Amino acid sequence: MRAGAALLAAALLAACAGPDVAPREVPPPPVTSVAQADQQLAAVARERAAIEARFAERERVCYDKFFVNNCLDEAKERRRNGLAAQRAIEVQAERFKRQAVVEERDRNLAEADRRFKEQEAKLATEPPKPAPEPAPAPPPRKPTVADRKAQRDARLRAEQQQEAADAGKRAQNVRDYEARKAESAERQRKVAERKAEKAAKAAKEAKAAEDAKAAPDPAKK
User: Spans of biased composition, class Pro residues (predicted)?
Assistant: First the structure.
């Protein structure tokens, strides 16, 4: 019976392991261009999704087997190896793209420096160009009769406009003065009213006090 049990256990282990063997780690394929790096990164994304799908399917199968833990451990190991291989491809592709960017920048800087040096060398060999002489100013044109008439008309228009503006300011000043005068008269009227009210109140109080003194004292009767 012991021999039969051992054979049964071995058969179950073999059934759990299955015919597949965990993939061994291999170096990622070399990258020779940015386009190839982009293709590899896209393939990594697709393969990762496929690895996760296979792992989920294998988990489902493992729960139907006798040695569940062994089957799950093998599925996890396959998943880990697959993701590690994709990560290695991803790292290499991203490193190539970063290096390509750096090299392109260095090439552009080197090209700009080369052009600058060429331009400096060219300028050093050429004789300096003489500064252009300023053109003589034309003689002032004598004003004609039409010019003098236009200037006079412009001066008259300016004086008329200034006169109109001054007239408007004077009219506004008069209105402002009249308004201030009316406000002052109103304030004086109100002050006079308050004084008259105070005087009337004081006279009323004084009369009331005199009447109180003149009235006979009921206690002396």
Answer: 127-142
Q: Tell me the one-letter amino acid at 126.
A: E
Neighbour-count burial of 31, counting CB atoms closer than 10 A to its CB (0-12 exposed, 13-18 middle, 19+ buried)? buried
Q: At 74, which amino acid appears?
A: E
Residue 201 has which token pair? 């109140």
Q: What is the C-alpha R_g of the chain?
A: 55
Decide if 67 contacts 12 (C-beta within 8 A): yes
| Alpha-helix runs per DSSP H in the chain | 2-17, 34-62, 68-125, 145-214
pLDDT, tens digit, 9 for 90 and up, residues 16-71: 444 444 445 567 778 888 898 899 899 999 999 999 999 999 988 898 877 888 99
pTM: 0.41
The 8 Å CB, 24+ separation contacts for 15-21 are 15/65, 16/62, 16/65, 16/66, 16/67, 16/70, 16/71, 16/74, 17/70, 17/71, 17/74, 20/78
Q: Measure the CA–CA gap between 174 and 150, rounded to whole angstroms.
A: 36
